[in-house]
Amino acid sequence: MSSTRSRSDSVRRERASGRIPFVCARTSVAMIRRLLALVLALICALALALTLALLPSQVRGGPSVTLEFWTISLQPFFNDYVNGLIAAYERSNPGVKVRWVDVQFAAVEQKLLAALAGGVPPDVVNLNTETTARLAERNALVDMDEAVPAQVRARYFEGLWRSGQVRGRTYALPWYVVPNVIAYNTAIYRRAGLNPSEPPQTEEEMIQHARTIKDRAKVYGFMPNLDGVRLLHRFQENGLPILSADGKRAVFNSSEHVRYLTRYVDLLKEDYFPEDTLRRGYLGATERYSAGQLGMLITGPQFLLRVKNDNPEVYAQTFVAAYPRGKGNTLHLATMTMAVPKSSRNAASAVDFALFVTNDENQLAFSKQVVVFPSTRQAAADPFFRRGGAGPEDVARKVAAADLPYARDLSVIVPNAGDLFRIFREAVESAFYGKRTPKDALDWVVRQWNARL
Amino acid sequence: MRGSEGATPRLSRWPNRRRRALPGLLAAALGIAIAAQPAPSQPWAAGAWPDAYVTPPRDARIIPLPKSLRRLDAPFEITPATRIVVGDAAGPEDLYAARELNEEIAAWGAPLLAVVRASAAGDQARLGGGLGSGGWGSGGVILLGEPALNPLADAALAEHRISVDLRDLGPEGYALRVGPGVVVASGADRRGTFYAVQTLRQLVERDPRNPGRLIIRGASVRDWPDHPIRAVHVVLDSHSDVFHTALIDRIFSRYKFNVLIAESEYVRWESAPNIWHPGGATTAQAAAVIAAAREHLIEPIPLIQTLGHVGWLFHNDQNLDLMEMPPELAPARFAYDPLNPRVYEVVLPVLDEAIALFRPRLLHIGHDEVRNVVPFPWSEEGRRLGFGELFVRDTLRLYDHLKARGVGTMMWGDVLLTNEFAPEMSRLPRDIVMVDWQYHAAARYPSLDRFRAWGFPVLAATWYRHDNIASLSRDARRAGVSGMVRTTWTGYFGNRGALVSSYQQIYGYLPAADHFWNAGRDGPSLDAVEAASRFREEWRAARVEPQTIPGRALDIRAVANRSHIDRGHIDGGPDDDGAGWLGKGPDYDLRNLPVGQARFAGVLFNVVDPADRGGRSIVLLRGAREPFLAMPERVTIGAGFPAGALCFLHALPYPASRFGETVATYRVRFGDGGAAEIPIRYRVNIGTWLDEPIAFEHEIGWAGSTRSGVDVRISLFCWTNPDAGRPIVAVDLQAAGAGIAPAVFAITALDRARGAAGR
């Protein structure tokens, strides 16, 4: 019963708005013959039924659409923001319900693959560019170049729109971008005899500070971002290429690449960063920093919230500065994307919701919650991003905004990326843990990549 | 198994068709089964082969490799009159060892042997003329037991001047001598005898010169383990009573593991029926695993995850009040709140039940990765106390509870390593056994030394990668830790499909067994192909009986459309077309694949020499990227004869997008108009040319390497024809439109299917 009533209500609304054809109205004046009237009535009913069938279900008020929306690591700190976003969308789209699922970064790809294989995909899913590429390769994502009109695409920065691109087609909407900054513990700096107002400007200076901190303050100075495939980003930040121009060969075993890796291998051997750096990545670094046991933290500014939660005292001692650049004078700009699996039963609605999440207004609102930057032009032009402030996050916003011209997404997009990245990680670990020399490790992994590219 | 010629770099213009296999004698001496045995190059063989399939030589290596092994020329012959002699005071372990030996002999199709006590056998020996090898009658004897418990074993050892002394060999050490008429398998302790028998089982075989005779190869062995604890970690589920009991029987005990860490939080504990999971093991199923372990001299240790990874506690939406983060905020149901006293009202009864069921010396309480998934601590009070305090409080609460019940505590060590700076950690009792999991390959593992320096007993835990296992075991030996653990992560309820979806983890038990027993070696003992093959043989629990099956090659020459060798763009000569294999150049092709008639895993194939066929030796089907776009979607290969089986030597050039995806259909057309369709599924019956064995049924035909040293492998898939009498007129190879399709190197028809044990 409720379904019938709802449908009638929606027809009334549609009539009022002029979207229902007027054939029916005309029949009321046809007094000529009863038979003709009956035929017309039948035509009317048929037209009405067809029109209803063609309308979106939420307009029809028929069975409601439920969109499953996956984000990465936004709970619990952004519950209010995301819930507000969903409520706003549901208000303006009656009949659409959004079910939010937050997934940990490390689990998202595996969980998504399982959901796709099980035929229960999310409708909208937050991914990074590498995972986007891997899934696009599997032909698992909606082609956004096709699904999104050109005038809507133009709202996004062109370069960021391309960050979800595989073989010339874009498979995800760019959402927010997060340039790294350096957070540092001023108390540790002072203990080490370093001046807190002179943070490292370059990677080389950061290494020197890390040595000084370890030698004098007796805690680790840093945990360099070398875990997983992040060495690939570091190479590029130092002007060292990963692939040949045609993308068919790996080239990261030159003497410069070897020298760069050797530098860090030696630092680990000399105990200038802890051995769990490669295993625990940013999580381990954030924990150690939060415990007041790490001098510098290279991080996306959003993780400062975790420091604040874990240890307000350390947070209070934290200063933030621009990311210390390598020789390439560029920095990796991690881009979060919003993708729609092809197998979504509500792909059109899902794209609509993904556009809503990534529109100017919502991205700007998100950027005001945490230090991230929008992927749309209008939102990024807001004066808010040029404003500074006293707290670490305010400073982070300002320095990160200043870094944006030097930032680009350095994610390496390769076919069969899961295997290639695993091989890369294992080879790099083997160099750090003394199983191979850096040269042997890079030579080996280049051969493995070349066989697979 | 790795082909003997696979790694040979090729310098000549075309592959040398005249290369030969290692001489058989050399191979036999090395105990290595040869997978690819190129026969002398011949023109295409159109006729039938009398030996299209010959059971490959058995991998005769003893795993774990004994510390001292001397082959003796003369074997011991097993006859129905052979007796197994145990000591008069033989305990259940010795009797079980005798039973295991009998099971081995039965697996070869021989009748069970009589098991007698030493006193009875000794009388007969004296009547027969003394303890020398001629004095045991025609059947010979197999003497089992420690010298002190079996005087006949003691006498036989003395005769050969073999000392079996606990002080010399150490716990679990043993000596074994196999000669004509007498076998003696004697341990320094009862476990040692049990392991001597496990080694003995691997020496049983058909006499190569007279397959009607069952023999034990002549050998003199002295052996002992490097690591006192050689554990396997598994996760119990509702298939454990079948899967894990079989693993215990066929793999774990046979390869000398001695501890089973059974992760058991999803067992359906009676104290908490509200959190039962349908995939969880019942207590009866868990009890079956425990009983099997004990019977095989494997000590079971329960593992119940606590503090973190405690999703089990919240299953069925139960106990949500115990979560560290409120459920409405938490991104995952991962950790409990150790400040909530009700936690222990739920958890401790589960531990008590586990103790009652396992009767363990130690209980593993998990405690790993506590902060990896959700912010911890979350509560205000928790944050005030700090993570270190919460972690230590919870550990002590559980430790004290276990200690009061006479049970020691074991836990994962990672939290200590990453929170060593927390002063509270110093309060942890030093008799907690720390399991230090390190899943990477390294020359040194400093964490082992740190745990030792802190005063904890330590076990070093690996995952399944061979280099990880070898290097950690070696360094653990250096660091003097208590032993090793091979962890298995196939999901909480993944045992049913583990042989398919996680096979690398499963056959990886074999190299782990070897390296846990022999910690000194760094290099591989069994490579992946060998381990997978050996595991398959053990799992089938039937010994290989030699088979010879006639057959013939299907002629693919007319439809071959690509070379498996890429000349690249090196010399610009007439052959420099750059169109071989994947077009990656001569460093990344399959030039080391033997051509001509060559035997792969026992099946004879005729691999086309591209030099003979204008550079066309294989069939590629259409895929979604270069160079496959230009290839045909379907090719047809004529046959014209009946066959009991068709064997395909094939590989995918690149991975398909998902496990089990159908990448092609091979359609077998019969003369009567009927047809059979064979789905070719990624990682089920075909892998890429770079894949290790990835599923139980995924057989590797040839393993070698590229000129640049990259390991490569070609899959072998034999389809059994359910109606072998019908003539086959043709085989269609049809791409499935999956984006990638197989490369087919050769096809051989066998008159009948290979026996399961023959694979």
Please, could you describe this protein's structure?
- Helices cover 51% and strands 13% of the residues of chain A.
- Chain A has helices at 2-16, 23-27, 34-54, 57-60, 79-92, 105-117, 129-137, 144-147, 150-153, 158-161, 186-191, 203-217, 230-237, 255-269, 277-290, 304-310, 312-316, 347-357, 360-369, 377-380, 392-403, 417-432, 438-452; strands spanning 65-72, 96-103, 124-128, 165-166, 169-170, 173-179, 181-185, 296-299, 318-322, 331-339, 407-408.
- In chain A, a hairpin with a 2-residue loop joins β4 and β5 (169-170).
- The termini of chain A are far apart.
- Chain B folds into three domains: 24-58 and 545-758, no CATH class; 68-223, Chitobiase, domain 2; 229-540, Glycosidases (TIM Barrel, Alpha-Beta Barrel).
- Chain B is built from 18 helices and 32 strands.
- In chain B, the strands form six sheets. Chain B has an eight-stranded parallel β-barrel with strand order 13-14-15-16-17-18-19-20, surrounded by seven helices. In chain B, strands 2, 21, 24, 26, 29, 30 and 32 form a seven-stranded antiparallel beta sheet that branches. A seven-stranded mixed beta sheet of chain B has the order 3-12-8-9-7-5-6, sandwiched between helices.
- The two termini of chain B are 12 Å apart.
- The relative contact order of chain B is 0.11.
- At the A-B interface, α6, α15, α16, α22 and α23 of A face loops of B.
